[in-house]
Amino acid sequence: MTQKTYAGVALEVNDEGYMIDKNQWTKEIAKAIGLEESLELTAKHFEVIEFLRDRVAKGEGLTIRSIGKSGIVDIKGFYALFPGAPLKLATRIGGLPKPVSCV
Amino acid sequence: MIQKKEEFPLKKVCLICAKGSIEDVYAALVMANGAVMEGIETKVFFTFFGLDAITKKQMTKLHTATVGNPAMRMPNGWAFPSLLGAIPGVEAGVSAMMRGQMEQLDIPTVPEFLEMITAGGGEIYACKLAVDMFKLKKEDLSAEVSDIITIGEFYGLCGGQGTQIIFT
User: Fold this and answer.
1) Best residue in B36, B37, B40 to probe A by mutation, most A CBs within 10 Å?
2) Domain locations along chain B
3) Do B33 and A64 touch (CB under 8 A)?
4) What are the tens digits of pLDDT across the range A45-86?
5) In whole angstroms, what is the distance from residue A28 CA to residue A33 CA?
6) Residues of A that are catalytic
7) What pTM did the predictor assign?
């Protein structure tokens, strides 16, 4: 666990860079983490992140399939928004814990 | 940056799926999608009975064996009697139950799974030898199949450091 500062706010993150306390998340923090990942966030990115945060708040698991069915973006679009490992990236930027899903 | 724990992370995963039962096909698909979700370059090669997973007519009707499957159990945990498994309709029924269970866990159907894999950049190939053997044509195969190639050509796609080839 280490302390990192994003957008002027000091946060606790775990070894893989995920925020410990998801309630501290703000859009500015998201943009700062995004810049760290060389990613500029657009409104679409935030739509997806809000969807993910919603699901976690309801206690539902995060799967790539559910994002594809969300109506916000299709799976190809999701990979385009968050290149590489999209679910891991989106949750890190969204201040959520690392997902443990196989789909 | 997301910290990478390993010094030599996996860069490419090449999967070969040669069997057509539900468990074998889903093993290959989950592994392929898992790699794609991690941002790892992924290629899947379907051969022999694995072709059922990418053949339009078969992909929604995959079965699991109820005869000769030593790991098959009844819902209460007892061993599954072979004679019961041989009764007409039991194999189809058990397979349908399995598909239902997977749907509840948000595991996609085979056609959807293939779409998810290619949406993430994965590539799907059919084995030329098996396609010839089963007398199939490109039209019989899923639209997600990139090409029908030989194993030699598939090996050619599997080069590079940090590549693993997995056979299921």
Assistant:
1) B37
2) 12-60+109-167
3) yes
4) 999 999 999 999 998 889 898 898 888 999 999 999 999 999
5) 9
6) 102
7) 0.91
